Structure formats: C-alpha cells, structure tokens
Amino acid sequence: MANAENTDRMRLDKWLWAARFYKTRSLASQSVEAGHVRLNGHAVKPARDVRPGDTLEIVTGDAHWTVVVRGLNEQRRPAPEARELYEETIESGERRAAEKENRRLAPVPGSDLRGRPTKKARRQIRGFNEGG
Question: Of 61, 69, 88, 62, whose CA–CA distance to 14 is shortest?
Fold first, then answer.
C-alpha cells in the first residue's frame, strides 16, 4: 500500500535525474542545494516532493529551462521517454533558441581551438610571450 500512496509524488532530485537534466542524483541534489532549481518560484531542498503540474525553473550551465512536470518515473529511461516527463514552456524554448543563436553568431574566443597547438602556433605563442 505504501507504493500506491507515493505514485503521485517524487523527490525533486530523483525526478531531475530521471528526466535527464543531470547525469547523477548527487549532481541534481548539489544543484538544488546551490539554488539552481526553483519549484513553483521558491527555492527548495532536494527532498521536496514534485507532483504533476508543478513548475520548475532549472539552470544547467548556460541553459535556463522553465518546465511543467507532466509525469513521474522512478527509473531513468532513454531520452525520448524522459522528455515525456515534462513540457517546456513556450517562453523557455524561445529563450533557449535565442541563446543558442547568440552563441553561434558570437562564439567564445578560442572555442574553435582543438587539441594541442601546431608547431607554427607554438612559435607564434612563444614570440608573443617573449616580445619578439
């Protein structure tokens, strides 16, 4: 009977992990503790219960999500199934698309560099650092 009572609610950190916002439950818990996740506009603790219909504001790296909880799942499932656990708000989707476009148009300096510098690049760096 205890299982039947808890099917309409779930711990916040476990839901974030199951919905694939974080790779581990401990990362989800740390993020909630740090204030990167808000439930219905309020800062909460990782053990707070989440129910379908609740609104979550989640900040992961550069992404800022606003989602409505649509389902609960005790297990971490594949990404397409995890996306069924929430519905992103229209404003959130537009904001993330605009941020993605801004990153494309104005990339972070050095983001195109891959691996070790070439011999020519090392000489340029050494010449710049030595003033020659």
Answer: 69
pLDDT one-digit tens code per residue, 68-116? 999 999 899 999 999 999 999 999 999 999 999 988 888 778 777 788 8
> Does pTM top 0.85 for this prediction?
no
φ/ψ of residue 14, rounded to 5: -70, -40
Residue with tokens 């606003």: 66
- Are 84 and 70 spatial neighbours (Cβ–Cβ below 8 Å)? yes
Task: Name the residue type at position 97.
Answer: A
Integer CA distances (angstroms), 93 to 53, 79, 88, 99, in order: 18, 17, 7, 10
Give the integer Cα–Cα distance in Å for 53 and 72: 11
Q: How many residues does the chain have?
A: 132
Other CB atoms within 10 Å distance of the CB of residue 92 = 18
